[in-house]
Amino acid sequence: MDYLTARGLAVRGIPGISPKTGLRAIDLASDTIDWPSVLTGVDTIIHCAGVNSLPSNAGRAATDYLYKVNRDATGKLARACLEHGVRRLMFTSTAKVYGDYSPAGSPFFEDAPLRPADRYGDSKRQAEACLLEYQAKGLQVCILRLPMVYGPELSPNLKLIQKLMATGLPLPLASVRNRRSVLGVNNLAVIVDKLLALKEWPCPVLNLADPKPVSTPELIRIVAAAWSMRGRLVAFPPGFLKPLAKFAGRESTFHSLASNLELHCADLYRLLPDLVLEPTDKSLGRLQGRLSTPNG
Question: Residue 61: which residues within 8 A CB-CB, separation 6 or more?
């Protein structure tokens, strides 16, 4: 929000704005939002609120709430946009709509089959489908499929890496040669700004990522430098990691750390041919001193 405001855009949050963050926490699953006061006079909505994840043992009520927020509230917002004259809606989705990992050497294009492996990914897939229906009714839509986004507030994957590094124990990941797309929050802000400057959004769905994917060992080294920590990596045959993780009930952790999850972003660069993004090491380096500390 600060980046867009500094670029001269008139940005506003939902009424009841916090003077500190410019935003207000609301229950998107409720039916009490005064949409006319929120949407009147607005040209574009950037919808990035939602429930990010659920524990594997989450009960029915938590699962229902996730779908109410991520899918149903998105549909309500799209309908309200049409009713109150909002021209277009940008929606932050997730690479997890494709699944937990991509085949080696085969990054996901936007037209790849959607096979989410968890309820979070599925809720976003259903939200996307809802928005595409409203696009057919006249609402201009741009769905941004994001990989792991890093910034001062750490993503779950970076928190996991941080936690492992903070133990001081060697990490058996030096031999991992995976390719994972990631996205710096600064790069995300640049992309959103350039998309907002377009009069039309010809691509309803776009993959976003930093210029090059990184391996988990590379990411650990970059993050360790940003925290001024030592990332202790030791070699361990990757072929043994998956069965060990599965035996320990940590298969999802294995995919987070050792599998590929790579996005193909050619459509983004065709749409924004002058786009220049920072490489991951430089982008993360800009956050040095602002990252959450291992104990905080």
Answer: none
Kindly list the structural domains of the chain, giving each domain's residue range(s) and its CATH number in brackets, ordered by start: 2-285 (3.40.50.720)
For residue 108, give the DSSP letter.
Answer: B
Spatial separation of the C-alpha atoms in residues 251 and 244, rounded to whole Å: 9
- The pLDDT tens digits for 159-178 are 777 777 878 788 888 899 99
Q: For residue 136, what are the contacts with CB-CB under 8 A and spacing of at least 6?
A: none
- Residue 23, classed as helix, strand or coil, is coil
Residue 241 neighbours by CB under 8 Å, 6+ apart: 172, 176, 254, 258
Cα angle: 168, vertex 254, 257; to 5 degrees: 60
| Whether 176 contacts 104, CB under 8 Å | no
Burial code (b: 16+ CB inside 10 Å, e: under 16) for 15-32 equals eeeeeeeeeeebebbeee
pTM of the shown model: 0.88
